[in-house]
Design goal:
- This protein is mostly helical.
- The protein is 80% helix and 0% strand.
- The protein contains 13 helices and no strands.
- 44% of the residues are buried.
Length: 435
């Protein structure tokens, strides 16, 4: 790798670290801020996240399509700008609500018009921030990386995944320490520090990515004739469901409809309320889930070299399906907690390994003029699966009903594995860039 590429790679990875650490810290701090403002109203955070996921799933395909029409400079400005606005406005809304609630001027009830206005504004702010993050993720992983590191794609993808998983563990821990340590000064002091952390990180992130994108010439679509939003959706769905990667993307979305995630809210709630697992053990379980996920980033490049990209991806999703079946068996037939935990943890290797393979397939088989559109729909579909899972969780709230979610999770994971295996077999003779 040339010295120029080494510098570009370092800049992109550093920008990824800044982006993901800030995103994870902000996502962890927001629910805590809601609890600080209204400690007796946990439904506030649940309602916010449900509406936010719904709106994001509806808007993401439209924004994804627009990415293909923007220059690299505009993509960068839009992505960073939307995230900056979201943090600044979101922070201000939290502070305003806290001040008003302390003075008794706002109550967290649907009958309060002022609160409902805040609720909608906060939801829109969260959607704006996530759209900015999506723009940057597509731009870096699907536009810049495949062009700049075509000969070293698998290795760079693995490093990016290591950063993502590392920040998934480290950022919330650091956020918790900051919030706890600053609580004596003011209940929202830690939240303010996290907001400033995000805002201040956006400027170096912008400079790092800008220095890398100068080496890339994007193929930009001509500006389309203005059409209605409904026609845009219809055209986008038609393009997605006729694309050669529609089955791998749909198979991957099936994996999101699973309650068997160590850091998922449904499994965490069950372990505490159903099995009465101590908090420290749940925390260890969550941490080990990330460790097992990181391990896949070392295994997957080796599998690609031995089995090629399709074979490695197929082996990973089959591993996850096998482990999920083992977890269901331990849960339903023998109620063995330890076997269940081990099966769920090992399944993370398969999940994150397949995630790397599916990402690389999109990098290779999405043409430059369709990357935003296809990846925007992929993001929306994954969020829709998460939304449906949360909705299912609201119907099966009793710990005794969790078995239904466990069996349903196994069904969708196995369905995803069957879909991808069938598709991979039909495309087994395709020649791919397997660096």
């Amino acid at each position: 790798m040339s010295q120029v590429n080494v510098v570009i790679r370092r800049n992109l990875l550093l920008s990824r670290l800044l982006t993901r650490s800030g995103d994870q810290a902000w996502d962890f701090a927001l629910p805590l801020a809601f609890i600080i403002v209204f400690p007796q109203n946990i439904a506030l955070g649940i309602g916010l996240y449900f509406l936010y996921k719904l709106l994001y799933s509806l808007i993401a395909p439209v924004i994804g399509e627009r990415i293909d029409e923007w220059s690299a400079k505009k993509i960068l400005r839009q992505g960073i700008g939307l995230q900056t606005i979201a943090v600044l406005v979101g922070g201000a809304l939290i502070w305003w609500l806290y001040t008003q609630s302390q003075n008794g001027l706002v109550q967290a009830t649907s009958s309060s018009g002022l609160f409902m206005l805040w609720f909608l504004a906060m939801t829109v702010t969260m959607v704006v921030g996530s759209l900015g993050a999506m723009i940057m993720d597509i731009f870096i992983t699907q536009v810049l990386v495949p062009v700049l590191f075509k000969e070293d794609l698998t290795k760079v993808n693995a490093t990016i995944r290591q950063i993502d998983l590392g920040t998934e563990v480290g950022a919330p821990v650091l956020t918790g320490v900051i919030i706890a340590a600053s609580a004596a000064f003011h209940p929202l002091a830690g939240f303010t520090v996290i907001a400033l952390w995000n805002v201040l990180s956006f400027f170096p992130e912008y400079l790092l990515v800008r220095s890398s994108r100068q080496n890339v010439n994007l193929e930009v679509k001509a500006l389309p004739v203005p059409v209605s939003m409904l026609r845009k959706y219809r055209a986008g769905f038609r393009a997605f469901f006729t694309h050669r990667l529609n089955i791998p993307i749909l198979a991957y979305s099936m994996l999101w409809f699973s309650a068997l995630s160590p850091h998922g809210v449904l499994l965490t709630t069950f372990l505490k309320g159903g099995w009465q697992i101590p908090e420290q053990d749940i925390g260890l379980f969550r941490g080990l889930g990330a460790v097992f996920g990181v391990s896949s980033t070392f295994f997957f490049p080796l599998l690609v070299r031995r089995l090629n990209l399709l074979g490695a991806s197929a082996s990973m999703i089959c591993l996850q399906a096998f482990c999920v079946i083992a977890a269901v068996s331990a849960f339903v037939f023998c109620a063995n907690h330890w076997l269940f935990f081990v099966a769920v943890l090992v399944s993370r290797i398969g999940l994150y390994g397949f995630m790397q393979g599916e990402t690389q397939l999109r990098q290779i088989w999405c043409a430059p003029g369709e990357k935003g559109q296809i990846n925007g729909f992929a993001s929306a579909i994954n969020n829709s699966a998460t939304l449906l899972l949360l909705l299912a969780g609201t119907f099966f709230t009793n710990p005794d009903d969790f078995v239904i979610l466990v069996i349903g999770s196994a069904f969708f994971v196995c369905l995803g594995a069957i879909m991808f295996m069938t598709w991979a077999w039909k495309n087994r003779h395709e020649r791919l860039s397997l660096s």
